[in-house]
Amino acid sequence: MSISGSGTAESNANGVCLPAPASHDGMLYNESERATLPVLNLDVLHDLEEDMGSTGVAHNFARDYIRIWDKRRSYLEASVENDDADAAMDAVLSLKNSALMVGAARLAKLAVDLEQLVKHGDLQAARQMLPCVALTGQQTVSGLRLGYLPPEV
User: Which of 12, 136, 142, 146 is deepest in the core (most CB within 10 A)?
Assistant: First the structure.
């Protein structure tokens, strides 16, 4: 499943994120690169299925990812809103690693960009990216539900 969109910061009704403000040294944090990435790269989960010899582990991993998405998002938002750089870094690393493992390519790229902002102490710019993170995360959850997991009975 691939949902197109670009940038960071704000979103419109079409699910497109608008660019974040310039970062340190006047460079933007790769919003055009993020726009070319799929929301969900199913090859990652198919590789997990292959490695495990069945779909069960990968399906359970995707379900767990969906189940804790809101907790992960809330932790990131709270840490950034509270200007807690250590907690923000912890939240960003959790977001990045879990996104990479589930094939959430665009969300993983957002997390990499957020990681750089937090490393540089720019929590204001990180704060402006939160709506895009929330939107992209929700698109990822929808992609997993509709494009990967079997229908629930």
Answer: 136
- 54's CB contacts (< 8 A; 6+ apart) are none
Q: What is the pLDDT along the chain (153 residues), one digit of tens a residue?
A: 433 333 333 333 345 564 444 444 444 445 666 778 999 999 999 999 999 999 999 999 999 999 999 999 999 999 999 999 999 999 999 999 999 999 999 999 999 999 999 999 999 999 999 999 999 999 999 999 999 999 986
Using CA atoms, how far apart are residues 65 and 142, in angstroms rounded to an integer?
12
Domain regions of the chain by residue span? 39-147
**Second CATH level (architecture) for the domain 39-147:** Up-down Bundle (1.20)
Rounded to two decimals, what is the model's pTM?
0.81
Residues 131, 27, 99, 38, CA torsion sign: positive
Main-chain phi, psi angles of 11, to 5 degrees: -135, 160
Closest CA relative to residue 96, chosen from 137, 51, 50: 137
Q: What is the 3-state secondary structure (H, E, C) of 36-80?
A: HCCCCCHHHHHHHHHHHCCCHHHHHHHHHHHHHHHHHHHHHHHHH
